[in-house]
Design goal:
Layout lengths: L15 E5 L2 E6 L2 H25 L6 H7 L1 H4 L1
Length: 74
């Protein structure tokens, strides 16, 4: 199976597998790569929550949202 390039890692920064008794037990990644993955995960979770809110009809008009957020928009 051919694996695609993972944009999270720069060249030479791919995760290193930890092997115990011929079984991969974990992967070690650089702190910078881990933080990038966490940011991406938070973004994707936020997008999923937004899509679910739209599907559930939990939306508001732009004018109403702007009025509610006026104190932060000053």
């Amino acid at each position: 199976m051919k694996r695609g390039r993972n944009p999270t890692y720069a060249q030479g920064e791919s995760p290193a597998p930890m092997v115990r008794e011929d079984v991969v037990t974990a992967y070690v990644v650089e702190a910078k790569a881990y933080e990038a993955m966490q940011r991406r995960l938070r973004l994707l979770e936020g997008l999923a929550r937004g899509e679910q809110a739209i599907a559930d009809g939990k939306v508001t008009r732009h004018a109403r949202a702007k009025k509610r957020l006026a104190r932060w928009l000053k």
